[in-house]
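Read as amino acids, tokens; as here:

___
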Amino acid sequence: MADNENDHQVKRELKTRHLSMIALGGSIGTGLFVASGSAISTAGPGGALIAYVAMGAMVYFLMTSLGEMATNMPVSGSFATYSTKYVDPALGFAMGWNYWFNWAITLAVDISTAALVMKYWLPNIPSWIWSVSVLIIIFLINALTVKAFGETEYWMAMIKVVTVIVFLAVGVLTIFGIMGGHATGLENFTYKKAPFVGGIPATLSVFVVAGFSFQGTELVGITAGESKTPEKSIPKAINQVFWRILLFYIFAIFVIACIIPYTSPDLLGSSASDIAISPFTLVFKRAGLAAAASVMNAVILTSVMSAANSGMYASSRMLYSLSLDGYAPKYFEHTTKHGVPLRAQVATTVVGALTFFASIAGPKVYVWLVAASGLTGFIAWVGIAISHFRFRRAFVKQGHKESELKYHAKWFPVGPLLALILCIIVIVGQDPSSFVHFDWEKILVTYLSVPLFIILFFYYKIRHHTRLIPLDEVDVEPHKRDEASTEDTTD
């Protein structure tokens, strides 16, 4: 047990501007800057737009669901805590550990990617030096204060936002022929098999790419526990997500699709593993901007570091929350005088570092570790949808009125149900062909995070004899984590 007065609580230092930018920054990353090209080459401009519009709508509904719960009970554990309180303690246990593990592994992926980006400028320096350097920097930023994380993430997200705005402006000028010479207009939308290439199967496959692109938006729920005014900042941040998704994703995909034909071999190389080729770089070059590659490389480096920064923050808060709920050792309840759960952060860093060094020692081990965390984001989204559905039903059944809620989720119950269905479609649709050919190794690599989640769930359920909490017993009263005692919700 920790020994200072700040234990069992983290400081509320994140301002509205921090949460708004974190919500936006979490959804702008290599998925937009790099992988968006492969989406267009796979399903054509029309198919890519449909996939991103559908997934964008789903993410918006999920965020409004999370916003309703987060304003009612702002906690650092967010959806894992909501799963515990509104559904079943076993679900909260599985959600929390799965999410922590995901971000700890993703941290290793991010620092490895950062090293690849640095090789663009300094190819002769060993990659591990860059990876270790980035890990140390990210650790120190998060170890200082909550505000240090918020400010760093704010400015890194700002760089990404400015880049997208400049890209959209240059793109529009290029489409009309004001820059880059030839006006493309909408000609690439009717080029060869466009706008829809590969039919419904191709469009559905792009749902997966779009879904991964939007992962990270749920971070706004985790930051709720450290917001100064969650009842104001969370709704504002979430309400802005819709318009930002529309502007920064849908419009960006439209611009890329207008300027670059889906048959371009450069788009085929646009994958998360090939950060040297970005559709943004291609569009800037098309407009005649010679330094485009170097500038975009710097932006992608910022994006990767932002992802690592957010990952460190999210995972340490999740482990801290797990310890408060009794799902992790009490050792991790300790916070520094600045409200930072340092022990949880150290544990996360160690796991991330071990994963990184495993990638150096044996690629096979690394592949399996990454596979084990691959679908965790979608599993978290499923948990958010189920928790919100149960929360609202319990809220009404216990005699409360919707007007009592500080923030109302849009289109309930359509929102969470639609999000639940789409998430399941995306999870199942990761690689359906592997089932046709019964490629068991491929199936395991693709879907490993699902059985791991199920094992965690039933382990806790069987050991503690938990049950689905009846609606009239669900705790829907508004309160904050540091004002409430930790209750034993097991049988």
Confidence is low (pLDDT under 50) at residues 1-8, 481-491. The radius of gyration is 22 Å. The longest helix spans residues 36-72. The chain is about 65% helix and 0% strand.
